[in-house]
Here is the input.
Amino acid sequence: MPILSKSDYMLYLKHPAWLWIKKHAKHLIPPIDEALQAKFDDGNAFEHYVESLYPNLVRVGFDDYNEYLDMPHKTNMAWKNGAENVAQGRYETGSITCISDIVRKEGDSFILTEIKSSTSAKEEHIWDLAFQKIVLEGAGYPIKKCEVAHVNNRYVRSGDIIASDISQFTDVTEKVHELIEGTKLRIEKAITIAALDKMPDPNPERARLGSYVDWLDIRQKISPPLPDNSIYFLPYMDAEKSTKLIKEGITTVDEITDVTVLKRSTQKYLAARAEGRRVVETEKLDEFLSQISFPVYYLDYEASQSLLPPWDGTRPYQHVPFQYSLHIVKSLDGEAEHREYLHQDASNPMPNFIESLKKNIGNEGSILVWYQAYEKTRNKELGEMYPDSATFLQDLNDRTIDLMKPFASDMVRDEAFKGSASIKNVLPVLIPNFSYESLDIQEGATAARKWKEVTLGKEIPQTERDRVYSELLEYCKLDTLAMVKIHKALADFCA
Here is the structure.
């Protein structure tokens, strides 16, 4: 009988075939990428702060497979030797096992704590704890309370990070209790699937816990691959929506007759597909463009997030702007002037960021951004943190116009947009010879992660810093230049 670990069980919940693949065809599972590893690293850093709240903590853990095998013995010995709190101990009963973040002894029973880098207790954390509770109680450790230790996103740093203030505990005992009997049944099913010679149904409608997109990548490596016109590839599709279609016998896009069961963005794509051509509502578009006054400032921010706030006055996961790109045109036919700012040391970037904006943006003319909620929110937050600049930042917001609006509001629609108004989808359609594909950095999340790594990381060679900074400048510059070109293309539609 195969051993089922906690991570095995969570894969089963995401998709039964995912568990089978881990046991029998592990090569199909993509390796952990840099972005996910960075998230793990942040979580590990937070874990140490939570652990520091437990006195006389015994940390078991392991460094290699042999140590992993010996963990249950070491864990049991820690408790027999009078431990009050045990971190990263491994427990097992029958064919199931788990490593638990924190177990605290209280009288004759125990409190089970799962440490998560999120800002709240989530559904998957409850499922996780239910599995652990069954394992621990089977191993002789009765659990009286289950809780999630997560990040307090209202914490504001002032000096050294205070572990008790940045950590928040949510009691989920009752929710875990409600899942116990169902979890026992699912454990049995998971063990059965892990032992099968043949992969269970791999189709994506069986994906759960938000794993649809990730599973779809794996599904395409399984023979036979899904056809190009499969419903699974529709933009913004998910397990719930695909299940509804499958139950109606619909497997391809052409078979869909009732689009109301789909998300609005998916409906937009199908409507554009049915039209079969690009549609421009010139009257509405002309009205939108008439609101733009020159000189025009095309502006884009890049911001970094950190679980552990790096600077005084900042919160966990706060978006801290560290870079902007700015193109300025006095007329659509005029030459575009480019200005920019990139913070290149470990100090708080926000004061210099604001001062640079003040120098480069005049007090007249429209400010064009893509998805205005982002830049406007950053300006509002900056104004709250730096009241002396609040009036200036509010003026920026008052003059801001969202260049995404013609696409989000269907003034311009095209099947090739894939139901999306993202600049990454719109740009290559409207300006085919202009794309991000040649850049080392191609999207904002990578930009933020790389900036944080080289700017806040220790012992990074200067040559590496310079290389990344050069890539960041090139990427952000393209974002605003793309807006210049899209603005001109929109004007041409109305000419």
Remarks:
- DSSP finds 18 helices and 14 strands in the chain.
- The chain has three domains: 4-195, 204-273, 282-494.
- Residues 282-494 form a domain with the Nucleotidyltransferase; domain 5 fold (CATH 3.30.420).
- The mean pLDDT is 94.
